[in-house]
Amino acid sequence: MRMLGKRIGVEKLGKPSNKDSFFALPEDSDATGYIRYVGDGINSTNLKVGIKVYYGKERHCIKIGGIDIWVMDEGNVYAIAEDESAEKQKYKTESATS
To answer: Hey, where are the domains in the chain?
Structure first.
């Protein structure tokens, strides 16, 4: 399965925890998930299968293999969640070289 054009398929996660986020999301927010499918027309090199993203409301739900997949345009992705341990290591490395 592959998405057409500038679309991505995201598997929705449960409600995100605000304490782990760089920015605060509303408590009722459910707009977070992992990218499972990427279209061949995607302009961003940051949108890859397996990364966690936060997305907006412009999306459609389809079922693939019993899993709900949210299909949306790449512009509907608002943020990419970076691995917290990788971020901490990055800052340790930068401060050590300063």
So the answer is: 7-97
